[in-house]
Amino acid sequence: MPEGVMFYYQGEMLTVYFSNPKACLPVRTSDGGVKLAGWGRRKSQAGELPLGGWAALNSIYQGKWNRFMPKPIRLPIAKFMKTDFEGCTHWYDVTAGQWVQGLIAREDQETRIYIVTITPESHTVCHDRWPRIMAG
Fold first, then answer.
1. pTM assigned to the model
2. Predicted confidence (pLDDT) per residue in 30-75, tens digit
3. What would you report as the CA-atom Rg of the chain, rounded to the nearest whole angstrom?
4. HEC string of the chain?
5. Contact indicator for 27, 74 with CB cutoff of 8 Å
6. CA of 102: how far to CAs of 28, 59, 123, in Å?
7. pLDDT of 83-112, one tens digit each?
């Protein structure tokens, strides 16, 4: 699960870490623009939406997010950061033409964005969860 992301917003490259309670993610709008929205929920934040900033794809398929009216979204992220099993951080590029899948969750007036994650298919990847990268 990515702990940090880099993305372009209004012509500037921004770096955002989930640990920041004001962390936002870029969301591609239906008209092709980009807006910023709050990234997940931390223990210190009020609300009813799930804690964390990630939604495992298998939990979405199992219906665990259904009560939050989940909607898939495109996150135009240029790079994401992950910490490996040894505690070292690594930045990974998202290939041009691809995007990270996100999920909008809602509960009453609360709305938050989560990064959809999968289990890596390759055994050579030193991470247990990986963002779901999409093309199209």
1. 0.91
2. 998 999 999 999 999 999 999 999 999 999 999 999 999 999 999 9
3. 14
4. CCCEEEEEECCEEEEEECCCCCCEEEEECCCCCEEEEEECECCCCCCCCCCECEEEHHHHHCCCCHHHCCEEEEECCCEEEEECCCCCEEEEECCCCEEEEEEEEEECCEEEEEEEEECCCCCCCCCCCEECEEEC
5. yes
6. 10, 14, 24
7. 877 888 989 999 999 999 999 999 999 999
